[in-house]
Amino acid sequence: MSQEEIIRSWTESNRKFMKSDFADMEVESDQQKKLPQPPLAKPAVREETLLLTKDFTGVLKEVNYLTLLEQRKSSRVFKEGSLTLDELSFLLWSTQGVTGIRGKGYAAIRPVPSAGARHPFETYLAIFHVEGLEKGIYHYLPLEHSLEWISTPFDLEELVSISLCDQEWAAKGAATFFYTAVPYRSEWRYSVRSHRVMLLDAGHVMQNLYLSSHAIGCGACAIAAFNQEVADRLLQVDGQEEFVVYAAPVGRI
Ligand SMILES: Cc1cc2nc3c(=O)[nH]c(=O)nc-3n(C[C@H](O)[C@H](O)[C@H](O)COP(=O)(O)O)c2cc1C
Hints:
Elements: H1 3-18, E1 50-51, H2 65-71, H3 85-96, E2 100-102, E3 107-109, E4 121-127, E5 136-141, E6 146-151, H4 156-163, E7 175-181, H5 184-190, H6 194-215, E8 218-220, H7 228-235, E9 243-252
Antiparallel strand pairs: 1-6, 2-3, 4-5, 4-7, 5-6, 7-9, 8-9
Helix pairs in contact: 3-6, 4-7
The structure holds flavin mononucleotide.
The site of flavin mononucleotide has 9 residues, from loops.
């Protein structure tokens, strides 16, 4: 097959993936087969976790919603300056925090919508400049609204930059957010229909990160250009049952 033919064939199958072609197909999902529901969020791997505040008094700038929408943009240049832990807490809560539990643990309700309330994402952070936190990779625990430290690679900035296809500016903010997908959370309910909606779900998370960053005097930039293997390794996820789908640096602007 020539490269042209390969690209044409991939384009066709990728377009098919974008369509709702499975809508009429009889597919019995694991939920319909009454298989056990996967956990709503990945449990902590560390014993020690840092509980974050949900008191956001003083974190938000006086800014009206219309201005926020008009001023939203992608930021690739950041001023020096740390985020406070409360500001980071607000960004985590407003993107993936849990505001309620539906049924007997059937679903988590969060500030963003998600198909079937499956919320198939985990949030990881490369922390560079956040008051009260050492540099390193952290994982957000949405049910407890807390953070756990994962690792502190010696060359964190360089690794983040390499993982994001050498977009060096993306390691020069206060923190770089990484979103992984845990696909089975959504596959359990939607089987082969889940993959298209998981990517739609991710967009909502990112828009909240943009708007929330602006609301605290910071900027963000969505990043979909990353090196899958390097990014997965950086976060210590297996690349099969969990893998990176989106990233964004956040910093003062
Ligand atoms: C899904 C997605 C992926 C993106 N990936 C990158 C990226 O890898 N690098 C980058 O510099 N900008 C990236 N961007 C930012 C876009 O370039 C930006 O949103 C666009 O230029 C419009 O600018 P604005 O956000 O300031 O309105 C991405 C945006 C989206 C929504």
